[in-house]
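[Automated response] Your request has been received and processed.

Submitted sequence:
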Amino acid sequence: MRRPLIVALVTILVLGGLVWAGWSAYRFFYERITPEECYVTTPDGGAVRLSPAMARNASVIVAASVERGLPEQAAVIAIATAYQESGLRNLDYGDRDSLGLFQQRPSYGWGTEEQIMDPWYSSHRFYEELVKFTDWETSDVNDIAQKVQRSGHPEAYRKHEQNSIAIAAALRGSAPESLGCVSFEPDESPDHSGLERVLQAHGLTAEEADGGLIITAPDEAAAWAAAHHVVANSYEAAVTEVQLGDRTWQARSQDWATASASGDPLTISVSIRS
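Generated structure:
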């Protein structure tokens, strides 16, 4: 009786070792062939790909529109503009003295170099100019962006409109579970300041909880906006998991999935790497 039992135990251990080795090998190769990127689902089922820095900058641009009390269309216009001008990157160079997300020029009165290199300042400065045009909400996205920027390429903003609509919808909360990121190694030294700033723009605060944060939103749109902003800032803030209601996102998986246990539909639970 003992010998068959020993053989069975050895077999189980060997099989377990093989399964563990296979899973480890899968993770090893998956992490090396899968880019650490964010993805925003478009209405037609496609996806917009964003680097971590692009996602974080888009988060700021959208949050600044909320902070100014502007509708979603303002964020669409601003993102389309930043897409064309900088590729949604905070560039410290450009044509002549152009700088930042919107390639604003100190010599044209947009602000100092230091101010323009601050995504919050540059976003607010863009909106400040945008709303001077009384028809900006009903104007063609390309045409109103050109009025603000006065670019040498007056039709260049048009090609970014659809991607910008998808990103703005995700970060304003009107398109639930449409933004996810893949992250394998969140920052070792988490910086929550960027995340806290975008949440503050939405009138939300993050309360510390065991192993993470808890955010309570007033309605579904605000809840999904907050959840997407958390994911967009997940690299810098070392976020590993976000749950909203019965949906959850994990850093190693792009998509939102069904949570093991359903939570409050207006409460965002955030897990942070310790």
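Summary generated for your ticket: Strands lie at 38-41, 47-50, 179-181, 206-209, 212-216, 239-244, 247-250, 257-258, 267-272. Residues 17-33 have pLDDT under 50 and may be disordered.
If you did not submit this request, please reply to this message.
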